[in-house]
């Protein structure tokens, strides 16, 4: 069974030090994609904007600046409120988003209870998949993995 942890939240798109606008967003975490968090921004268009990045980046970014390149996260205070800033960069442009720290932290805590740090790989069931791929089928022995007869058109012509 897979767990989904979601939270609707109003972020602020920072346009300048003096001006920001509200952006409704949904934070989503899925235990079947245990290393990632997903943020969907509802920006008033037909299609929302989706971003996916490492859960660990957001967890660390609540406490200290982290990230490079496309996603950077850091805590700060704005008008006496604790917030988490998320800087996103893409070929289409850059955005600086401000999220209230308490709801983001509470949501992250729920994701960490769903899949504790270090247990992410277990959620992927990689060992089970590999075992299934490598297991001999019941009607064949291990030495009988290749077809005995060549496939049609597979006969060698050796210069003929």
Portion in beta strands: 35-45%
Distance between the first and last residues' Cα: 58 Å
> Which structural class should the secondary elements be placed in?
alpha+beta
Which sequence of strands runs across the widest sheet?
4-3-2-1-8-7-6-5
- Biggest sheet statistics: 8 strands, antiparallel
What does this structure look like?
The chain is of the alpha+beta class. It contains 4 helices and 8 strands. The protein has an 8-stranded antiparallel β-sheet, with helices on both faces. Strand 7 (81-90) and strand 8 (93-100) form a beta hairpin. The longest helix is centred in the C-terminal third of the chain and has 14 residues, at 101-114. The radius of gyration is 24 Å and the shape is elongated.
């Amino acid at each position: 069974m897979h767990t989904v942890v979601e939270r609707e939240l109003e972020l602020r798109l920072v346009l300048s030090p003096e001006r920001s606008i509200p952006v409704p967003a949904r934070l989503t975490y899925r235990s079947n994609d245990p290393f990632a968090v997903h943020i969907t921004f509802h920006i008033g268009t037909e299609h929302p904007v989706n971003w996916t990045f490492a859960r660990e980046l957001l967890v660390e970014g609540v406490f200290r600046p982290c990230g490079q390149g496309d996603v950077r996260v850091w805590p700060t205070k704005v008008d006496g409120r604790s917030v988490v800033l998320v800087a996103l960069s893409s070929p289409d442009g850059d955005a600086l988003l401000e999220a209230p720290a308490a709801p983001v932290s509470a949501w992250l805590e729920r994701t960490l209870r769903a899949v504790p740090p270090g247990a992410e790989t277990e959620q992927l069931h990689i060992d089970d998949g590999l075992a299934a791929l490598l297991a001999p089928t019941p009607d064949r022995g291990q030495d009988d993995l290749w077809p005995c007869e060549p496939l049609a058109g597979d006969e060698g012509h050796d210069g003929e």
